[in-house]
Amino acid sequence: MEGLARQARSDAKSHKFPKELVQLIEGLALRKPRLSCAAIHRRVAAIADAQMWRAPSYSTVHAIIRDLDPGMVTLAHEGAAAYRDRFELIHRHRALAPNALWQADHTMLDILVLDANGTTARPWLTVIMDDYSRAIAGYLVFLGAPSALHTSLALRQAIWRKQNSEWPVCGIPDVLYVDHGSDFTSEHLEQAAAALRMQIAFSTVARPQGRGKIERFFGTINTEVLPELRGHLANGKPSTSPKLSLGDLDTAIGDWFIATYNTRVHSETGQAPVASWRGDGWLPQMPDSLDDLDLLLVMVAKPRVVRRDGVHFQGLRFMSPILAPYVSETVTIRYDPRDLTEIRVFHQNRFLCRAISPDHETESVSLKDIQTARSAHRAPCATKSRTGLGPFLSICPNGPGAGRLPQRELSNNPIGCAFMKRVTDYDRASHGQLHCHQRAPALRRVCDGRAKTLIYRYLFWSGRRGKNSLDPTTCKVGQGWPLLDIWGPRDPSDMIAYKALAQSRAAFYTPMVSEPARQTRDNLSRLMTRIEGCIELAQHPERGLPDGKGPDLIQLLVIDEAERLSAQALEHVRDLFDRTGIGVILIGMPGLEKRLECYPQFYSRIGFAHHYRPLQGDELTFVLTRHWRKLGMTLDDADFTDHQAVASIARITGGNFRLLHRLFVQIERILKINELSLVTDEVVEAARSTLVIGAT
Q1: Mean pLDDT for the chain overall
Q2: Bigger pLDDT: 210 vs 58
Q3: Of 41, 204, 363, 424, which has the most beta carbons under 10 Å away?
Q4: What whole-number distance in Å separates Cα of residue 75 and Cα of residue 86?
Q5: What are the distances in angstroms from CA 63 to CA 41, 45, 77, 258, 584?
Q6: Are 133 and 269 in contact (CB under 8 A)?
Q7: For 636, which DSSP code?
Q8: What does the pLDDT average to over 310-328?
Q9: What SS3 class is residue 516?
Q10: How far is CA 410 from the centre of its chain?
Q11: Which residues contact 328 (CB under 8 A, 6 or more apart)?
């Protein structure tokens, strides 16, 4: 039989063409972007004629390309990630025992529900799954972006014993496996995990395979449970009209967890998740009490002052006889957002008592209930104010609208501006301070914090004249704001400002509070047009006054107080970014990134986010050394007086750069008044007493 088999040719898979020609074909086949076989054949034929080689046929070129290693082709054309996902071996990990490893993650559900105001919204689901048994330990259905509080509420349910005996999963896991979301990397969750002796493990960035089990479970939810409910989204559109509230959806998902998922046989483990978690019987590690668990995970801390009638919070009054000696004292309250009928009161980190709301001691009131009641009360009031007060305001000479300019005149008012002083004597250290004019608070806020990179540019800030505008009589750049209102130089010094704008190619804008999107669009258009006119005048002074219709000359737009921008204003900024290619920087308070996640079209264009953190250690010493030098002194770490003063400054400011600057302004004033030549602890405390320090 072997003699009847066809024998392979001895020269199989070898070519009679020059080695260089074969390598040329392989190299062209691995080029990016991918070339078609016909294109490669045409190029090779032309090169073969030039080199006096025999030209290969199309089938020969196709055979050489077909024999290439598929992994090498994938690596060349699609990159390392595609090669890794297609050709590398994976390790399918499973925990060795129940509660050895829990996975936690969030997903946005493919369903619409009715929120407290009766409008449709897409809810989120947080799930905590036991890796060994695939049993669901806890979950939470909520509206809004995921946060550390939502994760803590799901963990609380997962760890503590359930009231339903058919859902026995509980205990403290050895490891909690999560991704790199801001809620999972929060200090609150880190501190809670340390207190519970639970390790937090983070998955590899951009490797969803590590969370395949819980991601597959989310797919089961979206394909098996949600299609049976009203408001299910199919291809992004609701197949039926939404009717469910958030509580109805929570009940439906919870019933499916308990009655169906946890009790049916899992295809991977061969056992029902609950039966696999129980095993032969064992005792999970539990916290000492539910109160201790709530204190670690759920309780939100807020500072309050004890009044004569108790503690006031969220429109409710809380009272306890133990608070009698603490009237007018500042205390810290901790509360459960799901039940605001009771709070816990702490004084100087010492537990005092539980305070009860006398008006709701027999019922349970959540923070969501209070917000719903406020919304229901606010709606008719707003309608009444629009319909009933309109005629009164139009005829009342002393009403809120009296004395104001019409909108058309207001839009033509001069635009305030400030130019940052160019930093030329800045030493090349890793941290430092950029100085700007003291009368421009909005611009100074951008300079506060730690400067990771020094940018030799001028920043331009604009807005309506008011508390944030620069007084033209004190501006050292030469009355900067009229330069954008009335174009053209009025004296030779104005050309310096034009050249500064031409060098920076940047615009700085601060929106007003509750500014409409149309006003934001008009202000940005007017601002950028006039800056481009000034730049054009600096580049071509012989042309005279520009018409404002020159080329796009601005390369960077910086928007401060970005949380004031409405959804429509953000969409306008995105459109400006897409059409012009201008760079955009948004500056705002903590939580801005979470808000922007709600707008996928905008959020997908964000390149990076940088969080300013307080100064610590060597950074604080470096900044304090510079402040000491400005006062004509030298900071000596070995000197006890200086060491005591530094400790007081660190305690008062907490490393906040802005507060540090304010404190040293007062220190310099006190030293000058008292004719002192040494910064002591008493001087620092005296400077502290002159400041109003709130939230920084």
Answers
A1: 76
A2: 58
A3: 41
A4: 10
A5: 12, 15, 19, 58, 50
A6: yes
A7: -
A8: 87
A9: coil
A10: 35
A11: 305, 306, 307
Q: How many CB atoms lie within 10 A of CB 532?
A: 22
Position 365, amino acid: V
The single-letter DSSP state of residue 211 is G
- What are the structure tokens assigned to 364, written together? 């349970």
Q: Which tokens is 376 given?
A: 């229901």
Asked if residue 335 lies in contact with residue 318, where contact means CB atoms within 8 angstroms, the answer is no
Contact criterion met (CB below 8 Å) for 15 and 64: yes
Q: How confident is the model at residue 382 (pLDDT cuts 50, 70, 90)?
A: low
Q: Residues 32, 78: contact at Cβ < 8 Å?
A: no
Phi then psi dihedrals of residue 113, to 5 deg: -125, 170
Q: Which residue has the higher pLDDT, 244 or 449?
A: 244
* 372-376: long-range contacts, CB 8 A cutoff, minimum separation 24: 372/116, 372/117, 375/116, 375/117
Complete DSSP assignment for 115-129: -TTS-EE--EEEEEE
505 compared with 417, residue with greater pLDDT: 505
Within 130-284, residue ranges assigned H as helices are: 148-159, 187-195, 212-220, 246-256, 273-278
Query: What's the mean pLDDT in 675-679?
Result: 87
d(CA 162, CA 128): 14
Q: Are strands 330-336 and 339-347 parallel, antiparallel or unpaired?
A: antiparallel
Gap between the terminal Cα atoms of the chain? 89
SS (H, E, C) 139-157: EEEECCCCCHHHHHHHHHH
Kind plus residue range of the DSSP H or E element containing 381: helix 367-388
pTM: 0.45
Q: Give the position of tokens 């719903």.
A: 372
Q: How many Cβ atoms are within 10 Å of 341's Cβ, its own excluded?
A: 19
Tens-place pLDDT, residues 560-590? 888 889 888 998 898 888 888 888 999 888 7
What are phi and psi for residue 203, nearest 5 degrees? Answer: -75, 165
Tokens of 70: 């598929």
Percent of the chain that is helix, strand, coil (3-state, to 5): 45, 15, 45
124 CB neighbour count, 10 Å cutoff:
17
> Of the candidates 147, 54, 139, which has an alpha carbon nearest to the alpha carbon of residue 104?
139
